[in-house]
UniProtKB/TrEMBL annotation:
Location(s), subcellular: Cytoplasm
Entry-linked Pfam families: PhoU
Entry superkingdom: Bacteria
Full protein name: Phosphate-specific transport system accessory protein PhoU
Primary residence: cytoplasm
Quaternary structure and partners: Homodimer.
Length: 221
């Protein structure tokens, strides 16, 4: 009985640490999106410098989950909880990387004249941030229904990314002066779409933990 209580405490500690890493990754995404939309080089640099803390937490959680698997030999939902948390941790680290990539685009664009206001880019950034927030809330609450909503919303992010690409290509054909900035904006939109994809991966892991069902490649169905 005492051994079970001790193991349960370890699982609670694991969730706390995953949520600590999630908070850092989500903050990095929000700051990077703001820096990209507003050409804020100082905020972009803050994102880049902050990535080391996310990477350090990933290393810590790697070791922690391996110890849990090796020493406690968990079964059933406990095993899914640990494996699912490992998957979420990997995606949180990638979210940090995408935020850094987006921040680099923001730093470049801050050195050039601003592009015209683009509502679709704002909508894509808002969609990606909202998906990530919902995916993390689904993890906190073990909410499979909310995780499914995140998966289905990914189509909207994909459509916005394609619309932005077509818009910038059309503008660059008619005005060659914006080609350089347009290319960086298109790549930035791709980073935002990748953030939406990674939020979907987190949602898939929530379904795996709660129901033991693999949603890879079928999350949107």
């Amino acid at each position: 009985m005492e051994q079970r209580a001790h193991f349960s405490k370890k699982l609670e500690d694991l969730k706390v640490e995953v949520l600590r890493m999630a908070a850092l990754s989500e903050a990095a995404v929000h700051k990077a999106a703001k820096a990209f939309l507003e050409n804020d080089a100082d905020l972009a640099e803050e994102v880049i410098l902050g990535d080391a803390a996310i990477n350090k937490l990933e290393d810590h959680l790697d070791n922690y989950t391996l110890e849990l698997l090796a020493l406690d030999q968990p079964m059933a939902i406990d095993l899914r909880n640990i494996v699912g948390s490992q998957r979420i941790t990997v995606n949180l680290e990638r979210l940090g990387d995408e935020a850094v990539n987006l921040a680099h685009r923001a730093m470049f664009l801050s050195t050039r004249p601003p592009l015209p206001h683009n509502p679709k880019m704002e909508s894509l950034a808002a969609t990606a941030k909202h998906m990530l927030s919902d995916a993390l809330k689904a993890y906190v609450d073990s909410d499979v229904s909310l995780a499914g909503l995140v998966c289905r919303t990914d189509d909207k992010a994909d459509d916005l990314n394609i619309a932005i690409l077509r818009q910038f290509v059309s503008e660059m054909v008619s005005e060659s002066r914006i080609v350089e900035r347009g290319v960086h904006a298109i790549i930035g939109a791709r980073h935002l779409e990748r953030i939406a994809d990674l939020a979907t991966n987190v949602a898939e892991s929530v379904v795996f933990i709660v129901e033991g069902t693999s949603m890879k490649h079928s999350c949107k169905e």
